[in-house]
Amino acid sequence: MNIITVKDKSFKPFISEENLQEAVQKVANKINIDYQGKEPLFIGVLNGSFMFFSDLLKSINLSSTVSFVKLSSYQGIETTGQVNELIGLDESIEGKDVVVVEDIVDTGNTLEKIYGMLAEKKAKSIKIATLLYKPEAYKKSFSIDYVGVEIPNAFVLGYGLDYDGLGRNLSSIYVLND
User: What is the set of active-site residues?
Assistant: First the structure.
């Protein structure tokens, strides 16, 4: 992995494809144990979670269903502080065990929005699975149930994460090279 340029910024290697797959498997193993005998609904948060979501579900050995929501809170490399719902849930989740699959949890603003949506729709239980977690940036009290990798509060891209829509297709994760 080499330093790359995306748009006007330079990024250096941060988490290899191999280490990402180990993190995915760690999360899948815990979910498989916790939901044994249950039929969870996995909700992927688009766009960022698509690679993690796909790889995670390949390692889930439970009867389950899937859905997606699309929320937006970033502009460039900064969070706007506002979470906009671009595509919402269009199905009943009442009485279902829900696992929300996020690419990254930083401030927790997106989680707060999702929790509100799911509670309003009367989910039986709500758990959060995230590939990346920034404990230094997290400002909410919702528990993060499944964490692939804890990272510092730095801007990252690749493996679904983007910079102005670019870089999502990278198989590894890169960090902003200051």
Answer: 106
- Strand-strand pairing, 78-87 and 156-157: unpaired
d(CA 118, CA 109) in angstroms, rounded, equals 15
Q: Which two tokens mark 31?
A: 């979910």
Beta bridge partners of 79: 74
The CATH number that domain 15-31+38-58+66-73+86-176 falls under is 3.40.50.2020
pTM here is: 0.90
Residue type, 53: F
Domain coordinates of the chain in residue numbers? Answer: 15-31+38-58+66-73+86-176
For 89-93, the CB contacts below 8 A with 24+ separation are: 89/43, 89/117, 89/118, 89/121, 91/67, 92/121, 93/41, 93/118, 93/121, 93/122, 93/123
CA 167 to chain centre: 16
Structure tokens at 4: 């790359």
Instruction: Give the model confidence (pLDDT) of 70-117 as tens digits.
Output: 876 555 555 555 555 545 677 889 999 999 999 999 999 888 888 888
Contact yes or no for 60/175 (Cβ under 8 A): no
